[in-house]
Amino acid sequence: MSDDPENDFLRFMEVERSASPRTLANYLQALETCRGWFGDGFPGWRNATADDFRRYLFELMKQELSKATIRLRFAALRSFYKFLVHRRGLAKSPVAEVQLPKPEKKLPVVLSISQIDELLALPLKVPLHKQTAPWMPLRDAAILELFYSCGLRISELRGLDVKDVDFLGENVRVMGKGAKERIVPVGGPALAALQRYQREAAVTNGPLFLGKLRTRISQQAIDQLLKKYLKLSSIPFKISPHKLRHSFATHLLDAGADLRSVQSLLGHASLSTTQIYTHVTKERLRQAYDQAHPRAK
After folding, report:
1. H/E element holding 188?
2. Residue 216 gets which letter from DSSP?
3. pLDDT bracket for residue 289 (50, 70, 90)
4. To which CATH superfamily is domain 5-97 assigned?
């Protein structure tokens, strides 16, 4: 047993829980920030009390941090203390007794279908620079098509290999959170975009999406290509790859898909996580009603 419970915890999350690098970085930052707040008076994780963490919570609230940020930091602390209880013999978690502020009801930003169509068409409309390989716009088009067609997380899309795409079965095998595998249907336009890209880029095995050096594309490169096309579009707000996932889920529900099916497609462990999209759909219906019904107001 190590004398460094923080590193032991992070190794546990990485190896046994298959936490992503981003999650591990967030957890490390949360632990270091909390320990830094205690300063020289840090009593040690085993000796810290619920009152200590209530004072810490009060300090974070005084800093006017968002409720989501505060809850994220305490989620890391709660996971850490669960590890100490179950793996290091701590009697109980002091953080479990701390009542956190209720989460803000913030609805996901969703693109309209016309905005999606505009964005997905852009990679093949932009003039090709001399130094750009001819296959790269086709790759960008395939990435955007697949994001929207399957509702993938950025880590899931980046991690795809050529063998994960089944053109005959029209689906893709995805490795989700916690190393959970799922099979997601792929639409015709996305499959066609993938075939064009693979043919032009001569991608026959290994990573599906390649960067300039023909190694697996980085998350940063995916973020940058989306920003590039967003600037060229008429979409008036910032979007991330996750916004395409939000749009995927909301458009399915708008068209009558049932919640359980959408949960399965998204790879959500809990139905409550998927239910946020029903609120978006209700809001969109309300707006449509208010705008169209002659006696809505």
Report:
1. helix 188-201
2. B
3. low
4. Tyrosine recombinase, N-terminal domain (1.10.150.130)
List, by residue range, all CATH 1.10.150.130 domains of the chain: 5-97
pLDDT tens string 154-169: 999 999 999 999 999 9
pTM: 0.63
List active site positions: 153, 177, 242, 245, 268, 277
Superfamily of domain 113-240: Intergrase catalytic core (1.10.443.10)
- Residue intervals in the chain for CATH 1.10.443.10: 113-240
Query: How far is it, in rounded angstroms, from Cα 117 to Cα 147?
Result: 13
Q: Which long-range contacts (CB under 8 A, 24 or more apart) does 195-198 make?
A: 195/167, 196/138, 196/141, 196/142, 197/135, 197/138, 197/139, 197/141, 197/142, 198/162
Tokens found for residue 223? 């973020």
The Cβ of residue 106 has, within 10 Å, a number of other Cβ atoms equal to: 10
Measured between alpha carbons, how far is 270 from 264 in angstroms, rounded to an integer? 10
Q: Which of 83, 71, 74, 75 is nearest to 16 (CA)?
A: 83
